[in-house]
Sequence to fold (230 residues):
Amino acid sequence: MKSPNPNPPQICEDTMLPIITTFAWVPPFARGFVRDIRARWACEEVGQPYDVVLIHNAKTPEHRCYQPFGQVPTYRDDEVEIFESGAIVLRIAERAGQLIPADPAARIRAIQWLVAALNSVEPFVMAIAVNDIFEADRDWSKARHAKVAEDLQARLHDLEAALGDTEWIDGDVFTVGDLMLVSVLGGLRGSQQLDSFPKLASYVERGEARPAHRKAMADQLALYAEPVAA
Ligand SMILES: N[C@@H](CCC(=O)N[C@@H](CS)C(=O)NCC(=O)O)C(=O)O
Fold:
């Protein structure tokens, strides 16, 4: 295995469980939104236990060896160490042979939706979060809100049309595509952005009601309820 990191988190030899790396602490507004939720959720869906390694600072050279952009999550198992939540979810699914159809056409459609979630939907979700939360103190932020919201609404309109009346995005089977779409749309939790899209809103509700999502979310929230260890 090519390991660019001289000090990667070590798989615990007693358990040999995959490791998900995430932040030891995040501000209250970010709790429930940190992207390790995607890896946790995928593990819970396929019944894969995992260990969590907490980091206090992602911008160190050591962590950047592992995640070049100094972000979380990262993931490591007995064969790979990778970053990017999309790649991580795919790895967990492929390793388990679950959440990803065996039929080649259905398989690539599931991957297509995972990529669409990250590449065609998430930028619009992030744009409004960046404008309204991270850059709320800039003098242009309030003026820019309407345009960012308009762009997001247009994208949600198209996504709702693509979903139609199906239970999941490609029919009646829940795949990595749904996991990522629901997770990305979950970034709008607490806003009114889904109010005009009842089908999308129930789709997110269905996804987040899955026991695996509930467990993953509860575990992330429990982590941030704890005082930070030094
Ligand atoms: N495309 C990356 C995005 C990772 C990302 O934005 N992670 C956030 C936490 S949810 C982070 O580490 N933010 C800190 C930063 O960017 O400095 C992925 O999906 O894994």
Summary: The longest helix spans residues 104-134.
